[in-house]
Amino acid sequence: MIRLGIRTAIRDRIARDRSRGIYAQLREFTMISEDVFCDNLVLAETVRDIPGCVVECGVWRGGMSAGLCRILGAEREYYLFDSFEGLPPAQPIDGAAAIKYQEDKDSPYYHDNCTAPPDFAQRAMKMAGASRFELQPGFFDKTLPGFTPREPIALLRLDADWYESTILCLRHLFDHMAPGGAIILDDYYTWDGCSRALHDFLSERKATERIRSFNGSLCYLLRDDQA
Length: 227
Hints:
This protein is α/β, with parallel strands linked by helices. It contains 9 helices and 7 strands, in the order ααβαβαααβαβαβαββ. The protein has one domain (about 1-220): Rossmann fold (3-Layer(aba) Sandwich). The chain has helices at about 1-25, 35-45, 65-70, 95-105, 110-115, 120-125, 140-145, 165-175, 190-205; strands at about 55, 80, 135, 155-160, 175-185, 210-215, 220. Strands 3-2-1-4-5-7-6 form a 7-stranded mixed β-sheet, with helices on both faces. The radius of gyration is 17 Å and the shape is globular.
């Protein structure tokens, strides 16, 4: 048991060190802190053996999708959804903090309302060695309804911020998940709208997937998770 614990600790340390190296290469393409970026990559390792594509909704400059590509392999298909025009207006359901965020345009966290031209994401994915990736520019209500991935989704990462955006992503993509595939919600612990969207979606579907926490920074689900 002690030896197993030591091997696990060494493996986790190697995964963490590798993730930090990937972050260093891609830091200009992400606004996520180093620790949380690495948490995403370490969590992604857990679905490495699940075949399927990777979808990220809300990519900014594409750094996280590129990091996932480095972990999960360039042979997969990657779909990057973003308006590339910034976030839609926050609504009362998203909470007072969300509305204040969009009002404070001088904040160092504003990032021009999360606006970025798509060529940043193109560059990031090419740096990661990806060849099978598609950028899906436009707001989610325009791009998701007609979207069907060519294979099940092994990893779905939602960085959609607000209630309407998050629940729209879940409604359109949940049924495309591979069994055992992971859904990561970046904003669950940040914005009220994101957590409300997940709770409402699971309730309306009568879904039994458990809401899990990874390292205290990420919320995730495993598709068809009954544990």
